[in-house]
Amino acid sequence: PNFPLFKNALDYATNHNGIAIDDIRMGKSFTYLELIQAVANLRLELLNGKSCLNQERIAILFPSGFPYVVCLLAVWAAGGIAVPLCTSHPTPEQLYTLQDSNSSILVSHPVFQDRLKDLQKNLTCIIKNDNWFVSKQSKLPVLFESDINASALIIYTSGTTGKPKGAVSTHAIIDAQASVLVKAWYWSQQDRIHHILPLHHIHGIVNALLSPLYIGATIEMHQKFITEQVWERWANTDLPKLTVFMSVPTVYSKLYQFYKNGDKEARKELTKACNQFRFMVSGSASLPTSLRNQWRKASGGQVLLERYGMTEIGMALSQEYVIWERVQGTVGIPLPGIQVRIISDKGSDITDKRNIPGMLQVKGSTVFKEYWQRPDATKKEFTEDGWFQTGDVAQRIGYHGYYQIMGRSSIDIIKTGGEKVSALEIERELLSCDFGIQDVAVVGIPDPEWGQKVAAVVVMDHGKEIELLTIRNQLKKQLAVYKVPSLLKVVSELPKNAMGKVTKKDLVCLF
Ligand code: ATP
Ligand code: MG
What we know:
The chain is of the alpha/beta class and 511 residues long. Helices cover 31% and strands 25% of the residues. Helix 15 links the parallel strand 24 and strand 25 (487-490). Helix 1 (4-15) crosses helix 8, helix 2 crosses helix 3 and helix 9 (227-235) packs across helix 10. 46% of the residues are buried. The structure holds adenosine-5'-triphosphate and magnesium ion (MG). The site of adenosine-5'-triphosphate has 23 residues, from strand 13, strand 19 and strand 20.
């Protein structure tokens, strides 16, 4: 059997040959045929006379764009396992990924020349500049034989709770992860996604790159997210119409701040620019209700489609495509074909209950194969009957039973005076109060009397101040008193990782 992505790409190359990648850094567009040809060329070079790479790990360090995509597919076509590195990580973290994965080859680009000498210890380094990708020509290659159940990709988790772990997926798993989104979000060849996400993470790789490739759509790849440039691109009517945008809450927050600070004319133009999108997605972290509603207004009616997923499971829950079913504060329902259940502390299945939180577990063809070289960790995260334990707490609410994510059991569920408190719930409340809080993280601080105390770390809007007492007086009216923060710190910025997630473990030491 052939890996479906290649089969599809080859079909697109032969049948319509539309634009696969619009590479903004290179200033050049590449058709599906050009993509497949470049993949065939690099495959031969990676193979270096062998017939198959036999699951060797090949690390990829490229700026976002066409060469990255060619490398990823070439590794697969050669029978290797791709290990995408984060371009913005410092060298030691990249080294960790290279060493942990035992990568034998690093394929990279001259823009990383400076750090390559530190990275290329114990491995072969192949450096390819932009010209190589443009000048090489070849005939339409034959389909590449690849075992659909062979391991294909190691994505490292974001490292929000500890050292990143390498999650291994097979071609079949990636295929399932990409195709479920194609169906649920009605991807078509007419779509053009504005891709600004990092390419070492499931959001940027599977949701925003492989799904559109799978269906034959166009991916407009920008090197990274820069608030002003994104707005400028959206407002430029001389360029092709964009139809899809995907990002994380932090990005929407930055885009909104920029919008808010514009004058009336500018705001009008930006609102109009959002009209071109068929849908806009938010994920990777909880989307604050306040931001969702601000965005809805600023964008002239775009209701962000929130979904929930993990490196280990792809996407599992998603709000529905129809706008009026996208209920705020929820992540919708299980994606087609994916089994989801909620298990109580006592071990009973409470999925059909309402408003009772429990541990979220997932099963299905999209769930990863294993943690790379960590059999114990893999074993620990699966139940005896084969369910993956996400470590997140969730409950179902309302008539439709939409899922609501309460946070990670390890850091977001605070145990204070015998009660369990969801940090995410308090964060949502704080952001929707009129205090001028721009960003917030709620954490549990060890305390001899209470077990943990609820602490809020806030970033204020420019020129605004806040006192703990003000927060307490207000929140007491809205929340049970044990949920109200008893500690407060105002900071200028929250520590976040490459995926824009707050690294809460770094906040505990503030108190
Ligand atoms: P690590 O596992 O290394 O600590 P990480 O869990 O942040 O890092 P990812 O796999 O990138 O690594 O993130 C998955 C986690 O992100 C989920 O377990 C969940 O806690 C969180 N998450 C993703 N989407 C949402 C969402 N829509 N709402 C709330 N949380 C979300
Ligand atoms: Mg995780």
